[in-house]
Design goal:
Low-confidence stretches: 5-9, 30-50, 166-199
Number of strands: 18
Shape: elongated
Order of helices and strands: HHEHEEEEHEEEEEHEHEHEEEHEEE
Largest sheet: 7 strands, mixed
Number of helices: 8
């Protein structure tokens, strides 16, 4: 029985290799025809500046490939410095889908979000997919049908759940945001969210566990805050205080008081220090949040899960943040490296 299973697995692997080679050859031929130039012609500087991109190929095998898709072990060497967590899958349409790069004892795989990519591209058993790692947490995906021809409908595919994924990088501020996110947590009050994530070390809390009474006390104190200016409050979650550092603001507050466009805003802490953050606006649902810069504010003010923040818009583009802590004692974070 073990021998038959091994033979079947080997045949399946050989079948996948043949299908992938055919798809890659077909795509290469299509590119050459579209170029209208012989190899070797063109600007030598452009050819020299082209970046070599690593690729892998997978044969889609129905239900088992629809929930998660494994990355070939041999390809994982090119992702050694890439943390698991949020990545972007860019389709032939140019649109992006958020997904989660996860790992187990067998290696790396695309988990949460992969199913939605499959559904939105109508991928079926026998289809072939090629993946190019573009860097900055993004993979470009090309879908071929069973005849190794690029799937024409893929050029019109759009995310059905209206989640937009943008991965940011900034060498000057590379510790602002963390490595992972469950994309489902970013659409709590609307059907649309924009995820802007900058990678860096996650923070691990050393604070003692807080009781329900402590959580409720912080919440009630925050609710008692009164101001002549517009206010809203939010209870801190893991993704606000320890990883990802994307702060979603209640949609009614966004709709009534915050800008209806992406722009820089200034947060002021209780010591009077100013922190610049990138504000992201989603027009379809009047939703928005803070992305780049929020991580620095969160760590600089030692925010923890279950702390409550009151956001007070005291002048245009200026927000004072009042923090009500579930546990007033401050303990240092442990920063976990992604490497």
């Amino acid at each position: 029985m073990a021998g038959r299973k091994e033979q079947g697995s080997r045949r399946s692997g050989q079948q996948e290799s043949k299908a992938c080679r055919a798809a890659m050859v077909g795509r290469d031929n299509t590119k050459r025809k579209g170029d209208g130039k012989k190899r070797g012609e063109g600007n030598g500087e452009e050819e020299e500046g082209k970046k070599f991109v690593q690729q892998f190929c997978r044969l889609f095998l129905g239900p088992e490939s629809g929930e998660r898709l494994r990355i070939p072990p041999a390809f994982c060497q090119y992702l050694q410095n890439h943390p698991t967590g949020l990545i972007a899958l860019k389709g032939q349409s140019g649109n992006t889908w958020p997904a989660k790069l996860s790992s187990d004892t067998e290696g790396l795989f695309f988990g949460h979000g992969w199913k939605e990519f499959v559904m939105d591209h109508s991928i079926e058993s026998g289809h072939i997919l090629t993946f190019s790692y573009d860097g900055h947490s993004q993979f470009s995906v090309v879908v071929f049908d069973g005849l190794c021809i690029e799937k024409s409908s893929a050029f019109d595919a759009k995310p059905s759940n209206n989640l937009v994924c943008i991965i940011e990088t900034d060498e000057e501020d590379n510790d602002i945001s963390a490595a992972s996110v469950d994309y489902k947590s970013l659409s709590l009050n609307s059907t649309e969210a924009v995820v802007k994530v900058q990678r860096g070390p996650e923070a691990m809390s050393q604070r003692l566990p807080v009781s329900e009474d402590q959580k409720n006390y912080a919440l009630q104190k925050a609710k008692k805050y009164k101001s002549k200016y517009p206010t809203t409050l939010e209870i801190m979650k893991d993704t606000n205080a320890y990883k990802t550092f994307f702060m979603i603001i209640p949609s009614d507050f966004v709709r009534d008081y915050l800008p209806h466009t992406d722009k820089k805003l200034t947060l002021w802490d209780e010591q009077g220090k100013a922190w610049e953050v990138s504000y992201v606006y989603c027009s379809n649902r009047s939703s928005g949040g803070f992305s780049k810069g929020w991580g620095a504010f969160s760590r600089g003010n030692h925010l923890e899960k279950f702390d409550v923040c009151v956001f007070e818009l005291f002048s245009e583009d200026n927000i004072k943040v009042h923090v009500y802590r579930a546990n007033p004692g401050l303990t240092p974070y442990i920063l976990e490296s992604n490497n």
